Amino acid sequence: MTVVFETVEDVTLATLERVALGGERARLGPDAAARLSANRADFHSWLADDPERFVYGVTSDFGPHANRRLVGEERRRLRELGVPFLGLSFGDGVLPEAGVRAMLVALLALFLRGGPAAGPAVAEALGRALDGPLPRIPDGGLTSPGEMMPMFYLYQAIPELVADEGQASAGNSAAASVGLAGLSAIAARRRLELVVQVLALSYEAFKAPLEHLDPALGELWGDPFEAEALARLGACLVGTSAEGRRDYQAPVSYRILPRILGLALRAGVRLAETVEDSLQAMVSNPMFLPEEGRGAARALSTGGFHNALVPQALDGMSAAWVDLASLMHRHIVKLHRGAVSGLPDRLLREGESYRMGRTTSYLEFVPGDILEEMRRWAEPALLSPGEPGASHQDDVSAPGLIAWRNERRVAVLFDRVMAVLAAVASQGLDVTGRTAPVPLAGFVEEVRAHFPPVRERRVLGEDAARLTAAFTHRAEGRGGT
Fold this sequence. Notes:
Blueprint lengths: L1 E4 L7 H9 L3 E4 L1 H20 L22 H10 L15 H17 L6 H10 L18 H10 L2 H4 L11 H32 L9 H6 L2 H13 L15 H4 L1 H23 L7 E3 L8 E3 L8 H28 L1 H4 L25 H11 L22 H32 L6 H13 L9 H17 L5
Parallel strand pairs: 1-2
Antiparallel strand pairs: 3-4
Helix pairs in contact: 1-4, 1-8, 4-5, 4-8, 8-10, 8-12, 8-13, 8-16, 8-18, 10-12, 12-13, 13-15, 13-16, 15-16, 16-18
């Protein structure tokens, strides 16, 4: 399949998912090609009217030397020198292939807007680059002003980005953080589908009163995301019996469950909307505006390459995973406390002791250090107080890549806590001889395929690791399956 892009409005989270995760091809439509050609011609005409105009990187040198004007042969010689750096960064490995593909889609969105005044050849080169092989970009040392560190690798792999001396800019933008945040938004949507199922399973295993999920609470609380959380949890429990359930209120961690889940749903939507808005508002430096309703033609030097919204949206998602994991840990503990849950203490079968090892008891200790690590990774990605380079141009590093790396790590750690809760809740049903409600029956089978009910001693950590891997693959893998 091929995704054809005609306007920047075609670059959405859905099309990014198709290209970055689905592996589909990306091509420029005929209308887009004609528009980019016309925009490039307008830029040339405008510049020819006054070759002394200041256009950063076109009639001037770069960075701290922007005050030095370039003319004719000097401009061509600078362009022929190309990008001075072949690659400066290093880390533990390389960015995921899907991440590089997402970055290229974000760059394509930039050029579709027309501001860089690049002809269709550049956008078409981006499409061909997506056909592979993709450049290998280190996963560390990338945080930089204008996200130039990852761009150095793309300039080497796609020389068309810098080969045309007639374009206004070469793509210094927030393409890396916006593209990678797009992957996080997609994974968050998929992961939240799992979260609803796991929390509903825990709710059922605990036999918590259904009144805590009464749809009327949505109106009382007045928040659409909390109302959605109530509806989604309730849908998972359709057909469950009201008989034999706890006849008084459940512990607080069960009663506030819809509100904490609602907060996570809000964070997921915020991240998705921020990414989609950013994809359709990509800005480089400079940006050429042809003569139209916005006034006379002009080239603007801008700091629009610094996206300040994406880091905060990613930080919010990280915080939501930590809050959910904290709640899940409480559920894990409560399910093992017979005096609280009304279930067999430590989820033991009749006549057995926890020393026999045929229980999920003591798994509740596992999330402890996971949660501590999650909290450390969830620290907000704030602007650095110091100037990051020696260029004397007041550079400010964009923290989007730090926020993305943090959220990605927090999310994978979250999957571990979620896997433990799923296994324990499944055990709670098994030791009491109950079956899951119909909407959850298939999910329970999936859980037990990786972590079967504990009836004999075995290495439970290995089962939990397999279940975690399955959850992570469902959230982050191609197609989410």
